[in-house]
Amino acid sequence: MGPPGVGKGTQAAFLRDALGVPHVSTGDILRVSMQDGSALGKKVKSFVEGGRLVPDDLMGDLIAERLDRQDAAKGFVLDGFPRTMAQADTLDRVLARKGAPLDRAVILTAPEAEIVRRLSGRRTCPKCGSVFHLDSRPPQAPGVCDNCRSALVQRPDDTEQVIRERLRVYAAQTVPVAEAYRQRGLLLEVDGMGSVEQIGSRLRAGLGIA
Asked: N or C: fewer beta carbons within 10 Å in the chain?
């Protein structure tokens, strides 16, 4: 868990490799649905590009289907779910049905100003999917992908206005989920500032992973 742009996907991928279980990213699931051109995909797109959360019932169905796949039988790392108390209740029901209790909930933290800087500077290539950053990983030629020479774009949900709306929604709806997990003794809070390696080291130490 954590605000947008804090590095959840990167650290979840490291945990996937360390634990040998799938990295289940709701962002990936949603992006696939937005790209398929279906009526449902268009509905999902309107929520995501407006900085709003996708309805809980839809996310619950998507997660339940994914966790029922064979590769998740021995465990999984969830990235971006649950984001609301209703989603947390849905996850409890899904895991109870599977007989797989939640081991830990991890939250990565970073100041709001840092989140805005990270996301507003991000540029992506619509052709090959490469990602750049105006500060930390600028392209060799301004506005041009290093790999395929296509024009880079800023995702609609990476504009400052939408980022601040996403952060407002996060504070109102997801922070209470983290507090609920804290009360259950499941929450591990990890400082999301510093290099990817430094954050990963803190995360592994908190989880007791070598």
From this structure: C
